[in-house]
Write a structure and sequence with these properties.
Structural class: mainly alpha
Distance between the termini: 22 Å
Order of helices and strands: HHHHHHHHHHHHHH
CATH class of the largest domain: Mainly Alpha
CATH topology of the largest domain: Growth Hormone, Chain: A
Strand content: under 5%
Oligomer: single chain
């Protein structure tokens, strides 16, 4: 049972918990949030929305993600997580179902707003709960594997959209995500709600976690670095298939293949960066991660066409989950007493810059810019994020957090 004493938790239970977390990220990130990316070109072709309206709808979803992360800062205890996690999964299911029922722009934006709120809560609370549970068992590095769910979600969303493209239209295109989400969300939520994570006892004179500062000389550079990562990755992860549609002929394999390539790379990402974090330390690995991710977004700007799209998909797909995983672990190593609250604060910063990405793209397109040149925003953001990463102090234990 997952509730067994930390010293005698069977390996099977350890991995089932990680699998449950991965499934929740698959459902909320892959089938809730990022399925919108491969759907967007089809929704535009169906005449349901324009590219500019699509960017606006995406912005509402990212605003919701930010609000969800802020909610997770306010309600960050284990008892709060046990209430908010199942409620958020229910909101995900209802708002995805709502997308099958309307093509009204306002209704779509509202549904995506609340879907983003649910996604933000789950993306903070499920990994935070699992990380705390694993830390008690000295197995924190296993937490990286739950982010495989993001890559699998991208792959599943790509398959659902492309396989149903010729027999569904408009609002109908959301039905596969609804049908698949229900059983997956049910099983994974039930599994995580069984976890026993005790409330951390306070030492004499210790500041309560909810009262201690989130921002100090150690954490501020990490927050700023994470902000750059959020704005940098979100442009290709929102508009890559649409960019392929703009740049490539109608029968090119990368029209659907770019998102598929990004998905496969994302599946490999947690293992790659888990290994590098264990080998050289999480902080050096994070700095390397920024350089690779920056090269990916830059490729889409300076190499327009199939080569640039493929390089962007592969490099961004193989890094952005690693950025999340490494940053969360570094943050906890810098402030181990903060736990889920610090995780929620970092995701809030990440969410704010993600929200800014589609909004800035919309302004750029309406001012006469192109989608290709809009990716330059991501290049600048990632460059700044990389610079700030070099100002983050090395946590104790040479940057490793498995303690």
């Amino acid at each position: 049972m997952p509730n067994s004493h930390p010293s005698c938790t069977p390996p099977r239970d350890l991995y089932l918990v990680v699998v449950a977390g991965a499934i929740l990220l698959l459902v909320t990130h892959g089938l809730g949030r990022f399925i919108y990316t491969p759907l967007l070109p089809y929704l535009v072709d169906d005449g349901q929305i324009t590219a500019g309206q699509g960017a606006a709808v995406a912005t509402w979803n990212y605003l919701g993600y930010l609000l969800g992360a802020l909610l997770a800062i306010r309600w960050h205890t284990i008892s709060h997580i046990r209430m908010l996690l199942p409620a958020s999964l229910a909101v995900h299911l209802l708002t995805t179902l709502a997308m099958t029922q309307t093509d009204h722009l306002g209704a779509m934006s509202t549904a995506r707003l609340f879907n983003g709120i649910a996604n933000g809560v789950v993306f903070v609370q499920a990994p935070a709960l699992i990380l705390e549970w694993l830390v008690l068992r000295n197995r924190a590095t296993l937490s990286g594997h739950l982010y495989i769910g993001v890559g699998l979600g991208l792959l599943v969303s790509s398959g659902l959209v492309s396989s149903s493209a010729h027999w569904l239209e408009g609002t109908e295109r959301w039905w596969p995500a609804v049908v698949l989400s229900i059983p997956l969300a049910w099983w994974a939520t039930a599994r995580l709600l069984r976890l026993g994570v005790p409330v951390r006892a306070q030492s004499d004179g210790e500041t309560p976690p909810g009262k201690s500062p989130l921002f100090d000389r150690a954490s501020v550079p990490l927050f700023l670095s994470y902000a750059g990562a959020g704005l940098g990755y979100i442009l290709p992860m929102t508009f890559l298939p649409l960019l392929a549609k703009d740049q490539l002929p109608a029968d090119h394999w990368l029209l659907d293949g770019a998102w598929f390539l990004a998905a496969v790379a994302t599946i490999l990402s947690p293992s790659i960066w888990n290994y590098l974090g264990a080998k050289i330390g999480d902080l050096p690995a994070l700095r390397m991660n920024f350089v690779v991710q920056l090269a990916g977004v830059l490729a889409a700007v300076i190499l327009p066409g199939a080569l640039g799209l493929a390089v962007c998909a592969a490099l961004v797909g193989s890094t952005f989950v690693g950025t999340v995983m490494l940053t969360q672990r570094i943050g906890r190593a810098l402030h181990p007493h903060q736990g889920p609250r610090l995780s929620a604060a970092m995701v809030s910063v990440y969410g704010f810059t993600q929200m800014a990405g589609p909004w800035l793209t919309k302004q750029w397109l309406e001012a006469g810019g192109t989608l290709t040149t809009a990716f330059g925003i991501g290049v600048v953001a990632l460059a700044l994020g990389a610079v700030f990463a070099f100002f983050v102090p090395l946590p104790g234990g040479a940057g490793r957090t498995d303690r």
